[in-house]
Write a structure and sequence with these properties.
heterodimer; A: alpha+beta; Arc Repressor Mutant, subunit A; 4-stranded antiparallel sheet; 8 helices; about 20% strand; B: alpha/beta; pyruvate-formate lyase- activating enzyme; 10-stranded mixed sheet; about 40% helix
């Protein structure tokens, strides 16, 4: 019997023939009523790859685009480097989320993707998938859904919001994303460094800590090393509303 | 006999029950076995020489990247002493040459200049402690200059909760010196006494009058130090119940905020200075136990709370309040209220605790000097804690500080099933329960009141590194 309590909701029970029980794609196809054969075809495209270790790149800006990948474990960071050599963080990808979508209509990846900790991926070869998508409209819908979610995440930053609002929105967005995958909505690990978080939110690292320290004093969160607990979800949602717009 | 004391502190009314831990001589005799004091887990013997400067730099960098990076505690070791006390097991160098102090400070400044910039500038120093040796071997002027240097290189908290403390040998300090220390920011002092009995003092080569000691305590109070600690040792050669009783009475009358009563650990094979003691003059195990009992009785009757291990404090002292609140912590400097900081150890032999790692500086002065002067961090050994180490370290902390474990909270905190994880260790705890040291329920594990004197033994059940053979040579007996 396992001594650990938290079981990962991201299953790893698939193999060459069967999808993992929580695969982002299999449910879409099943709901469209596709036959087992169709699913078989789709599954042939999936490769379980990894582990990528902290600092390993999954793809680099300018590499030929040929596959998208779903994160099965760990966290991936995407970023670009500007002409002055400064890194600009574009986003973080949690288990169940798909990287490489922004490269779909390009010949090359427009950004870098790096593992922030030990990362496992499901790699979908794209040319083959695109072909299959023409035969399976459900698959196309699913791909578009994933793509629009990705664009939605970026909207977090396009606006004149206070540090408190940005921080609250970041935490609530993470909370919802974790919850959508079956993880706890109120307690999770901040796998990204303070510097990366600050970069993404366009804040100074000291500001990130100052805001979190204040949230902690006010009882909104409890932070211990990298682990955070959202103790006043409603209040944080309130703060985040103008940014998340829902 | 339980006393109740009422006092007011920081806007809250407290009612303290001063219940002395029951003294079960039979039990204590039976459990008088070697064991670590758990000022850290894993303990220092587990540190590895493979842990290098590169490892430490990595660990520091990682600690800077927490969403709220931890504040800092600094420990500075000053190894010099003008004269040798024969009971001493600390890292020290006997000298009267002031120039050695000056040279040491030069190298300390080099170490500070290397270490301080590695930490993010918003990480404030909440605690600074000078230990030794004899920190006041350095003159107030020298200490003042070094303090200024530290203030320039680190960001010190301005909070009134910050602790700036120093161990003092009352034999070589003047009241004016104390005032000077207070002026530079020191707000806590710890005085070495051990025993006022002249026979004992002669046997250990530490002649120190009551008058000079009381004068220093008074000077600390007059200068505004927020707390004074007195160190006593029981088990020294020629100690008697009468003599030690008088010492306790004298100290109690001076009413220091904290009193530490250490057991003398006679290990001449490890500590050369102790070879100068006449072993035949050491009190018997029975007498030693009685000395401890006397200390507990007198201190409790006088209103001191038993914090744990060797420490007593007045109920209005921060340590007693922290214990009451459940946030007492233990580190290399003993019990402390600063649970949530990373510890930076500076100087020869000092130990650092950064993130989930330990690192120790060389214990011999020449090695420390040479490494610092070559522009490298003086790391002799250390370790990165594994997940299991972190879990056990937390458990042992809680035993040593609170004397009880809330199982559900512990499971939640570490994401484990307690009984499955600690299956083997709980069997050891079961036999302690049968002996009346702990009570076990499905929800709580708790040291009994007589078990509170044997917290080390309880904690040892969960020490994954403790093998029977290791305990004999390295660790002192529990009592």
């Amino acid at each position: 019997m396992s001594v650990k309590r938290r079981i990962s909701p991201i299953a790893d029970d698939g193999d060459e023939i069967r999808f993992c029980s929580t695969c982002a794609f299999s449910s879409a196809c099943l709901s469209e009523g596709f036959s087992k054969n169709a699913l078989q075809d789709l599954h042939v495209l999936v490769e379980h790859i990894g582990p990528f270790h902290e600092g390993d790149h999954i793809f680099r800006e300018g590499d030929d685009f040929n596959a998208i990948a779903a994160v099965r474990g760990g966290t991936v960071k995407t970023y670009v480097v500007d002409t002055d050599g400064n890194e600009q963080v574009l986003g973080f990808f949690l288990p169940g989320e798909v990287i490489g979508l922004n490269a779909i209509h390009h010949a090359k990846y427009p950004c870098n993707a790096v593992a922030l900790d030990t990362v496992m991926l499901c790699r979908f070869s794209f040319p083959k998938m695109a072909l299959l998508a023409t035969k399976m409209p459900g698959l196309q819908t699913q791909l578009f859904r994933l793509l629009s979610q990705d664009i939605g995440k970026a909207a977090l930053l396009a606006g004149d919001y206070s540090a408190d609002q940005r921080m609250a929105a970041f935490l609530i967005a993470l909370s919802r994303r974790y919850a959508a995958r079956g993880f706890s909505a109120t307690r999770f690990h901040l796998t990204m460094s303070r510097t990366d978080m600050a970069n993404y939110l366009r804040l100074a690292p000291e500001t990130v800590s100052r805001v979190l320290r204040r949230f902690q004093t006010e009882g909104l969160v409890q932070v211990e090393r990298r682990e955070i607990e959202l103790t006043q979800l409603k209040q944080l949602e309130q703060l985040a509303r103008p940014v998340l717009r829902d | 006999m339980t006393q109740v004391k009422a006092f007011f502190n920081a806007g809250q009314y407290y009612l303290a029950m001063i219940t002395p831990p029951p003294f079960d001589a039979d039990l204590l005799r039976r459990y008088d076995r070697p064991g670590p004091r758990y000022t850290s887990y894993p303990t220092a013997p587990q540190f590895s020489g493979q842990f290098s400067e590169t490892n430490l730099l990595e660990v520091i960098k990682r600690s800077n990247e927490d969403p709220i990076p931890r504040p800092l505690s600094i420990y500075v070791h000053v190894p010099f002493c003008a004269s040798p006390c024969f009971y001493c097991g600390c890292n020290r160098i006997i000298t009267r040459d002031e120039k050695r102090g000056e040279k040491y400070l030069e190298d300390l400044r080099k170490e500070v200049a290397m270490v301080a910039p590695l930490f993010e500038s918003d990480r404030e120093v909440m605690q600074l402690h000078f230990g030794g040796g004899t920190p006041n071997f350095l003159s107030p002027t020298q200490l003042g200059e070094f303090m200024r240097f530290l203030l320039q290189h680190f960001h010190f908290s301005h909070s009134e909760n910050r602790d700036i403390s120093i161990e003092i040998d009352p034999r070589c300090v003047k009241p004016d010196d104390i005032a000077a220390l207070a002026a530079m920011g020191f707000n806590r002092a710890s005085l070495g006494v051990q025993d006022f009995d002249p026979d004992v003092q002669e046997a250990v080569n530490r002649i120190q009058s009551v008058e000079e000691t009381l004068a220093v305590i008074k000077a600390c109070r007059d200068s505004g130090f927020k707390s004074v600690n007195v160190d006593l040792i029981y088990g020294l050669p020629k100690q008697t119940l009468t003599g030690f009783g008088k010492t306790l009475d004298t100290v109690i009358e001076a009413r220091p905020d904290r009193i530490a009563v250490y057991s003398y650990a006679h290990m001449p094979q490890l500590f050369k200075p102790q070879r100068q003691l006449d072993e035949t003059q050491l009190p018997s195990a029975e007498t030693k136990l009685s000395l401890l009992q006397l200390a507990i009785e007198k201190l409790s009757q006088a209103g001191y709370c038993y914090i744990g291990m060797d420490h007593f404090a007045l109920p209005e002292d921060e340590l007693a309040i922290a214990q009451e609140r459940g946030d007492l912590h233990r580190n290399f400097m003993g019990y402390t209220t600063h649970a949530d900081s990373d510890l930076i150890g500076l100087g020869v032999s000092s130990i650092s605790h950064i993130g989930e790692s330990f690192s120790q500086n060389p214990r011999d002065l020449p090695s420390w000097e040479a490494t610092v002067e070559s522009g490298h961090l003086p790391i002799w050994r250390g370790m990165n804690l594994s997940e299991d180490d972190v879990i056990r370290a937390d458990l042992i902390q809680r035993w040593m500080c609170q004397g009880e474990i809330d199982i559900a909270k512990f499971e939640e905190r570490h994401d484990i099933y307690f009984n499955e994880y600690f299956g083997e260790d709980l069997k050891k705890l079961q036999s302690l329960a049968e002996d009346g040291l702990v009570t076990l329920s499905p929800t709580h594990l708790k040291a009994t009141s007589r078990g509170r004197l044997l917290l080390r033994i309880i904690a040892a059940c969960f020490d994954a590194y403790l093998k029977p053979s290791a305990t004999v040579l390295q660790f002192s007996k529990t009592i």
